[in-house]
Design goal:
It is built from 21 helices and 7 strands. The strands form 3 sheets. A 3-stranded mixed sheet has the order 2-4-3, covered by helices on one side. A two-stranded antiparallel sheet has the order 1-7. A two-stranded parallel sheet has the order 5-6. Helix 3 crosses helix 6.
């Protein structure tokens, strides 16, 4: 507070009130990470090598990559000169095009940006050139048959004399796989983004063509990158063009989870609102006020309060209105308890892993069909940022990644549950630490609304019916554990029988001894 200028703040507040209130032309699409998420795992959300956009610009540990951004600018200028046959082309022409969208760029960030004018324009233009060069040169090692882009895009493979082919970031033979892996992770972090239309504008200038063709080319480039190079938690990939084109993380989310269709999802209006104890909530149906419209304000205290509320289903009032009854029914569905993977296995439930999408999850005839989840060392960054995007962005009414991780967390719960999932092939990959798996899946519990995923909701209801017959599941679990401990090892059975026999004979001997003494 030592640098706080009271007079300046007061003048700004008065100025803002005097101006006519203007409606927002477009909601923000690039969000800052909330404190609750950062406390869970800071390294998964904060860039480690390269800063993209204004949110992390100027941080000391990220300044080393700035010189490579200058290399990317020079390479992009050479590309445009080569494509347009115009040797007089200057990068200032790109800046002029970006300058016309300066206000639109600032509106994309939920907390605004401290950089204005020419600094912001140069920043996002350099970052866009870096992203394009990194992606195109990273794909130079992909077989041409695997790349579904235009032929002219793959024909340009570091053919210019400058920079050299042994460039540490963009060269063909660069031997920095660790650095490239960190850059890939940094490029999909939630607040380390720039608007996608900046990349599209630069591609349009390079192609001297319409923005639509540049958009299609960029979409192919990104989808190929995500399909061939990036880690994806599921095996399937969204082949259709993404409807949301806000930034790179948006496209990555589409490539991992596909498009949302009316056939496999519920209406967004059925999203559950939890009635937590907050003075800002009004009405008995838990209608939220404006302070909860942005999930960025969720705190750790609120998250713990919600978890306590989940552990005990709320009581329903008699004679309530239709809306209250409906809200109560939705809350009951949310607080349904389902058996863990260990209990389901001991209860005779079979696990199948032939579901291609999250919407294919189902439970029929004691068979639970799930989507295999691929986890490795880098999975934490990708999955956490996918969930953070769904939590923070109001565009994602169907939080399918969040719903899937919540469902998996309820099934795993403990290390034994994770081991069962590994044995059944539901969890694959080389992330062997079970505690890290459960910790990763638990981040999905930071949302205060129920994700509207119809398939998972129906599966939870059916599994909850199994939970009602928990006594039989418990008996089967005890029998299974007894059989695994003794029945599978004959020498233990013989030893146990012998020990029991000796104990019985000893008891008879003591009884006879006391009877003889009494006589």
């Amino acid at each position: 507070m030592s640098n706080f200028d009271e007079k300046q703040w007061l003048d700004d507040a008065k100025d803002y009130i005097r101006h006519k209130i203007k409606p927002y032309e477009a909601p923000p699409c690039i969000f800052s990470i909330s404190k609750a998420l950062l406390e869970e795992c800071k390294d998964a959300y904060v860039p480690q090598i390269v800063s993209i956009g204004p949110c992390h610009f100027g941080k000391e540990h990220l300044t080393g990559m700035e010189r490579f951004k200058s290399d990317a600018v020079r390479r992009e200028v050479l590309r445009i000169q080569f494509a347009t046959d115009n040797s007089d082309f200057k990068f200032e022409q790109v800046i002029e095009r970006i300058k016309s969208r300066g206000e639109e760029i600032k509106r994309c960030y939920d907390k605004g940006t401290q950089f204005n004018g020419e600094v912001l324009h140069w920043m996002v233009a350099r970052d866009a050139c870096f992203i394009l060069e990194f992606f195109r040169n990273h794909l130079s090692g992909v077989q041409e048959d695997d790349y579904d882009g235009d032929d002219d895009d793959m024909s340009f493979k570091n053919d210019f004399e400058f920079p050299p082919k042994l460039h540490p970031i963009f060269g063909k033979k660069s031997e920095n796989p660790g650095v490239k892996s960190e850059i890939k992770k940094d490029l999909i972090k939630l607040d380390n983004q720039i608007p996608l239309f900046v990349l599209e504008d630069i591609l349009a200038m390079e192609m001297s063509d319409s923005p639509d063709r540049a958009n299609a080319k960029l979409d192919k480039l990104l989808r190929t990158m995500f399909d061939k190079i990036y880690h994806r938690p599921f095996e399937f990939c969204g082949k259709t063009k993404s409807e949301r084109r806000n930034h790179i993380l948006d496209i990555y989310h589409h490539s991992c989870l596909g498009a949302v269709t009316a056939e496999n999802e519920e209406e967004t209006g059925n999203e559950l609102k939890l009635n937590v104890c907050c003075p800002c909530f009004t009405g008995s149906n838990g209608v939220q006020c404006s302070c909860f419209e942005r999930p960025l304000q969720q705190s750790e205290k609120l998250r713990k309060h919600i978890e306590r509320k989940r552990s005990k289903p709320p009581s329903t009032a008699v004679g309530g209105s239709c809306e209250n009854v409906k809200a109560s029914k939705q809350r009951k569905e949310w607080w349904l308890k389902i058996p863990s993977a260990v209990e389901l296995k001991n209860g005779g439930v079979k696990f199948l892993t032939n579901a291609r999408e999250v919407t294919d999850i189902r439970y029929e005839g004691k068979t639970l069909t799930l989507v295999p989840l691929k986890l490795d060392v880098d999975s934490e960054v990708y999955i956490r940022n996918l969930i953070a995007l769904e939590i923070c962005s109001p565009d994602y009414k169907h939080k399918r990644m969040t719903a899937y991780c919540q469902f998996m967390y309820e099934l795993c719960r403990t290390d034994k549950g994770v081991d069962v999932m590994r044995q059944k092939g539901v969890i694959i990959g080389n992330l062997w630490y079970s505690k890290r798996v459960t910790q990763l899946l638990s981040v999905s519990n930071l949302t205060i609304s129920q994700p509207a995923c119809k398939s998972i909701k129906e599966t939870r209801e059916k599994l909850s019916n199994c939970y009602k017959t928990r006594r039989s599941i418990l008996l089967r679990s005890l029998w299974t554990e007894f059989w695994n401990a003794y029945g599978s090892k004959p020498w233990l059975v013989v030893g146990g029988f012998g020990a029991t026999l000796v104990l019985c004979l000893t008891a008879i001997q003591v009884f006879c001894l006391f009877k003889h003494c009494g006589a």
